[in-house]
């Protein structure tokens, strides 16, 4: 009888915990994972162990386990070791490369991309991953700011390299093309040389210079609001990434389709090494082939970023779309409505939404799975990696400070700037050869004299249940009619329209007006026409007057980065003048409650003040 009383009381306690603290078990599990990761990192520091060492351990433990699945080929851990040894030997024999040097990689997703990085680390060097969408001056800018003296480019990018070859030649840069032969003067073939090189192990003393604080790779920011900057990722930062917290196992197969030159794609590669798992690599994202690939490779873990899950939800429904083994989706930037639709269509997949940035020093994970949140406040995580959401003045583009000169924490439900403290455990390595931009990302004297925080550039807010939500980027939030407008929010509302496939919202300057007026570049669904009156009714129902887009621009396609972030700089510069824009433009007409074609006469009337915005 006494035993039953104890069992009954335990059940009552569990029920109480569940109702009072519904996320208690997830919180406890996350704390356990934090302890396990911190323990692993303490061992890493003791041994000065890099992710390469972890890879070499896997080669010894399971040499024949598939590491990279690409198209119809399978490469084991031992294959990857041998191929990267060959790359290292070619670089040592055919260049003047030495410890600490940087090699720029300009390639699409392919196994050789990975062999190159592993080979470079084996000889104590690092890589700069160039965005393969860059051309001409932008490409030269990215190459130059890396400090590299060797460039390895994919064969498909040969013409892009030839365009800047005269400058590279002047700078005595060694240029390789991933091909068996190359007849262009100033370029050398690469893959033929690796096929002849020895696969024998590279002596460890060649990387004796490498410490956990050494640069492992340079990855460029997207450049959505300016020229890209090369963020420095150290070996310690790569080791700090643990897919254990996402629930990834040794037996998992990770589907990697995002560009390897971006941190999201490269981190999937690093995370798979850390777990000792397998990667199914694809050259680029394809919504129509996505689930077929998952079935072909028996994928269990997928990644997403930005709009990719929405692209999947927009594909035609198929009877077998729930026929797959995927159990985890890791990424960031999925809207709540897309999240729900994704689960409804494709099954019970655990979505692990993350907040992080390439150069940032702290990441946040929504480990509890609340739809729409990017993270959850956990006392232990926040104690180890201090962060805060502070009040921010978007007009002056600076944090608000009190009479003592210190920043003010935002209230629950209030959007503010996320800042993360720069500490020994959470360092900020900055940008390569750009001290000015590195310092620009730091905030000083935030809460006490002498402290330093990393400025994420993002506005977030915390709800009543301690979940963290993304609001907008600082550059994307603009002010109109004395109010702050979130481009992210307006975009979400516009894409709820039946005729709208996607929308890119931004602010444009209007002479004689304070702030910036809302404008949206819109892509209409195939077979549909832009619904002027319906769109007006829709934005009027869901958005306050100041947030409704004053101008609409219809485009056949919206310019995005390699990770599907909308490009805004050019659109902002072009404004809303129909004389210089070939796309159809529309103006919000509050009198007739519709959007009307923006003619040159209407444009002139806006500028003269005859039409009030």
UniProtKB/TrEMBL annotation:
Residues 489-565 form the AMP-binding enzyme C-terminal domain. It is a multi-pass membrane protein. Its EC number is 6.2.1.3. SUPFAM superfamilies: Acetyl-CoA synthetase-like (SSF56801). The keyword Ligase applies. GO terms for biological process: lipid transport. PANTHER family: LONG-CHAIN FATTY ACID TRANSPORT PROTEIN, LONG-CHAIN FATTY ACID TRANSPORT PROTEIN 2. This is long-chain-fatty-acid--CoA ligase. It comes from Umbra pygmaea.
């Amino acid at each position: 009888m006494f035993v039953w009383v104890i069992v009954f009381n335990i059940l009552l306690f569990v029920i109480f915990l569940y109702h009072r603290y519904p996320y208690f078990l997830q919180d406890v599990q996350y704390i356990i994972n934090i302890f396990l990761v911190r323990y692993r990192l303490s061992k890493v520091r003791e041994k000065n162990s890099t992710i390469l060492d972890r890879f070499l351990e896997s080669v010894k433990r399971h040499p024949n386990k598939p590491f990279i699945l690409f198209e119809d080929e399978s490469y084991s851990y031992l294959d990857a070791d041998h191929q990267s040894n060959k790359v290292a030997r070619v670089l040592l024999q055919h260049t003047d490369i030495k410890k600490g040097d940087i090699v720029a990689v300009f390639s699409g997703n392919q196994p050789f991309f990975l062999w190159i990085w592993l080979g470079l680390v084996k000889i104590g060097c690092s890589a700069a991953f160039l965005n393969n969408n860059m051309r001409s001056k932008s490409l030269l800018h990215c190459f130059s700011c890396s400090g590299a003296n060797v460039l390895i480019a994919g064969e498909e990018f040969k013409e892009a390299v030839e365009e800047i070859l005269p400058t590279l030649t002047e700078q005595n840069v060694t240029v390789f093309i991933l091909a068996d032969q190359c007849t262009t003067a100033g370029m050398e073939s690469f893959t033929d040389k690796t096929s002849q090189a020895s696969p024998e192990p590279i002596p460890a003393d060649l990387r004796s210079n490498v410490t956990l604080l050494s640069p492992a790779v340079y990855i460029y920011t997207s450049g959505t609001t300016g020229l890209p900057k090369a963020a420095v990722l150290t070996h310690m930062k790569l080791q700090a990434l643990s897919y254990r917290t996402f629930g990834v196992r040794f037996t998992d197969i990770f589907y990697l389709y995002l560009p390897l030159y971006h941190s999201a794609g490269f981190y999937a590669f690093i995370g798979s090494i850390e777990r000792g798992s397998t990667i199914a690599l694809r050259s680029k994202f394809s919504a129509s082939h996505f689930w077929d690939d998952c079935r072909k490779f028996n994928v269990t873990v997928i990644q997403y970023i930005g709009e990719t899950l929405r692209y999947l939800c927009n594909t035609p429904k198929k009877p077998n779309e729930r026929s797959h083994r995927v159990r985890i989706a890791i990424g960031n930037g999925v809207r709540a409505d897309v999240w729900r639709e994704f689960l409804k269509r494709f099954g019970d997949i655990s979505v692990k939404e993350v907040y992080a940035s390439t150069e940032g020093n702290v990441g946040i994970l929504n480990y509890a799975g609340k739809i729409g949140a990017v993270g959850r406040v956990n006392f232990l995580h926040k104690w180890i990696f201090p962060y805060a959401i502070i009040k921010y003045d978007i007009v002056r583009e600076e944090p608000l400070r009190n009479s003592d000169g210190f920043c003010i924490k935002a209230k629950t439900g209030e959007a503010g700037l996320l800042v993360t403290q720069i500490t020994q455990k959470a360092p900020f390595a900055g940008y390569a050869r750009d001290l000015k931009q590195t310092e620009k990302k730091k905030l000083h004297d935030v809460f006490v004299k002498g402290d330093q925080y990393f400025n994420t550039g993002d506005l977030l807010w915390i709800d009543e249940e301690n979940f963290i939500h993304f609001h907008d980027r600082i550059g994307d939030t603009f002010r109109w009619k004395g109010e702050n407008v979130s481009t992210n929010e307006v975009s979400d509302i516009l894409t709820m329209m039946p005729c709208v496939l996607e929308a890119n919202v931004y602010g444009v300057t209007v002479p004689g007006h304070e702030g910036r007026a809302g404008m949206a570049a819109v892509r209409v669904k195939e077979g549909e026409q832009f619904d002027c009156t319906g769109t007006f009714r829709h934005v009027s129902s869901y958005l306050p007057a100041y947030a409704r887009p004053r101008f609409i621009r219809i485009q056949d396609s919206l310019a995005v980065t390699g990770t599907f972030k909308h490009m805004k700089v050019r659109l902002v510069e072009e404004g809303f003048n129909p004389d210089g824009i070939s796309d159809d433009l529309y103006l919000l007409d509050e009198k007739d409650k519709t959007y009307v074609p923006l003619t040159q006469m209407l444009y002139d009337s806006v500028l003269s003040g005859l039409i009030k915005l």
